[in-house]
Amino acid sequence: MQKETIRLSKPIIGIEEKNAVLDVLSTERLGMGDVVEKFENQLGKLLKREVTCCVNGTSGLHLALQACGIGVGDEVLVQSMTYVASFQAISACGATPIPCDVKANSLTLDVEDVKRKLNPKSKAIMPVHFAGDVGELDAVYELAKANSLRVIEDGAHAFGSSYKNKKVGSFGDICCFSFDGIKNITSGEGGCVVSNDKKVISLIQNARLLGIKNDTEKRFGNTRSWHFDVSNQGWRYHMSDIMAAIGIEQLKKLDYFIKRRRKLARLYDAIFLQNDKVTAFNRNYHEVVPHIYSILLPKEMNRDHLRNKLLDIGIETGVHYMPNHKLSLYKTNEISSLKNTEEIYPRLISLPLHPGLEECHIEYITSEVNKLLG
Ligand SMILES: Cc1ncc(COP(=O)(O)O)c(C=O)c1O
Under CATH, what is the fold of the domain 15-252? Predict the structure, then answer.
């Protein structure tokens, strides 16, 4: 039996990140300064677009929606099966998140359901790149174009993933990433918004710092504005140099993290292929960087019982995600259009996946799951 609990996910932090944080601390300038600028430039070089960092992925989504002018009376179409952050970012603007169904084979947005729910109030689509998989992103963009909608990609899971040989975030309308503690790279907490829309970028850069016009340039010069104007609602959503210092070191390790995540997910898939009680998603790991590893249990299986049994033997698991249409704030009784979400949610379980795991951990986890499933 395992001595230490195998964590569902965790960051891989080395001496490099620790030293980088110490370097920032020793400058005695801890807010947003030239280290954030450096991190933004490095991310921008990778994605070949301008990148604006912020305090987390949720704030990035909120800033992006706000910059698109989305507000009270507007609707944003988003899959119900996502972290509540996607929904909260929409309702934070005063807009209404419209829960849509997911495709059963990927847990990404079902574009046909989005089509059914379009109406004159619809202003944007928010596809969530579930587990790093962007799903039918071309179809999302086609639909958006035909109906003059903005697309705000929730790429929280997808940093490093590609679609048709292009890096997620390097194309499309707006994409938001998360760098929280367990994401494909971390900056402690943190996130960023990527777009080619100059107006959106300018609005976001100001809004992340209380709407103070052009304060970003000053901060990057390690100074700040004393005489300024504010013409839009803003927030304290900027990234700090401490966070950016961690992010810069993590970025150097991205290729290694990607390789490990893909290798471990492929091993899970290969082992579960032998067990017809488990439905794995078999994602295209040439393009997808698996952020989480979810499977579907047999219908009759009690998920909580299985999760408790696994925890007893040192294996943490998760549930990605409780559908948002079941939450008090976003409750809807119109569930007939959310057929896949309703059917899949009780059977979903996520198994440990992070670059610190070894192949022997996956073998142990899968053999215990297989045993418990009989
Ligand atoms: C799908 C999804 N969207 C948005 C977010 C929000 O990111 P953050 O935690 O950085 O605010 C997360 C974070 O877990 C997420 O999983």
Answer: Aspartate Aminotransferase; domain 2 (3.40.640)
